[in-house]
Amino acid sequence: MSALEQLPVTFEQIQEAAHRLDGIIETTPIAHSRALERRIGSPVHLKAENLQRSGSFKVRGAYNRMVRLTPEQKAAGVVAASAGNHAQGVALAASKLGLEARIYMPQGAALPKIAATQGHGAQVVLHGTTVDEALAEAKRHADETGKTFIHPFDNADIIAGQGTLGLEMLEQVPDADTIITGVGGGGLLAGVAIAAKTLAARQGRPIRVIGVQAEHAAAYPPSLAADALVPLKKVSTIADGIAVGRPGQLPFSIIKELVDDVVTVSEDDLARALIFLMERNKLVVEPAGAVGVAALMNGTLNEAYGNLGTTVCLLSGGNIDPMLMLKVIQRGLSAAGRFLTVRIMLTDHPGELRDISRIIAECDANVTGVDHTRVGGALSMGDVSITIDMETKGKDHSHEVLEALQAEGFRPEVIN
């Protein structure tokens, strides 16, 4: 018996989920990225699930789980916990099915995600400072009231629903050699892996499935190495959609059998990927949805596998808080060498700021902000601290500006 035949979620369950979701979800488009193809040397297609209803793939699993509830369970209502995407998926599914939904979200959840969840008719309760704390309270409420708890990833129906993305990707790109998707708890990666590996096996060919995590929220690499769930002590990443400190037991049992690799990307990698997707593909994607592109751009996968062949990269969601987007854009531009902030300590003499401005202008950089400070704990009498923000044209141009300032006796300190 093959590994595919022994899994706790079957390919047939994914096919059944696809039938249930017909007319409920959108078949999201595939976009060919010539810019990424030039970078990695093989065709790259982007599965734009950020354009899905509710802004992410989560509605697939949520609806598939909830439509199968008994009449008694539907009457009692559902409860869930999420920082955003699962919340919106459950809320949308509940509105489609006419169910009452209570969603626990951590304090500090993005206001647009709270508003969107409420917009689908769900009751939102803010509890705790982390998703884990919100999850614990949601489970307690479900036990107390008899409502059904809708887990974000550790459930067979959820995994089967998310696996419908694997069917779509291989229907749209039937010759795919590599599929890349982000992973948090693991429901999405597990479902996609079942669908992709089964379809490829039936065609008598191999297919590579790779998961990607943010490096400061990467529970899967140590768990896979230990062949046991290894919870993280701390999770910290801008990719809140995959900020999960402990893999789900059910998806882990699937991923360890089917997935070829789980790699990590840095916060700067994520910021660069978001900028790239906005500029080159005109797509607004949240950090969790951009991890696959980040892994392609930083060269990790090419170094490990060489030519990836025809690649499909899943953009799993587009629910990004505008305030976070502003910060990410600045970080991404900085990481790409296109935004430079320097601090320069000066003596408080006339003309020094004029000289600095002249040097920057001669280097054809564009000053966007100046902070001029004469007082502060680190400043001596007669000293001035100048902080300058400027737009540059890349890393080489940034170095040129710094060298020009140094050549005229200034000592710029890069602070971003």
From TrEMBL:
Enzyme class: lyase
Stored Gene3D superfamilies: 3.30.70.260, 3.40.50.1100
Boundaries of every ACT domain copy: 341-416
Keywords: Lyase, Pyridoxal phosphate
A GO BP annotation: L-serine catabolic process
InterPro entries: ACT-like_dom_sf (IPR045865), ACT_dom (IPR002912), ACT_ThrD-II-like (IPR044561), Ser/Thr_Dehydratase (IPR050147), Thr_deHydtase_catblc (IPR005789), TrpB-like_PALP (IPR001926), TrpB-like_PALP_sf (IPR036052)
GO molecular function, one term: L-serine ammonia-lyase activity
Protein name: threonine ammonia-lyase
Organism taxonomic ancestry: Bacteria, Bacillati, Actinomycetota, Actinomycetes, Micrococcales
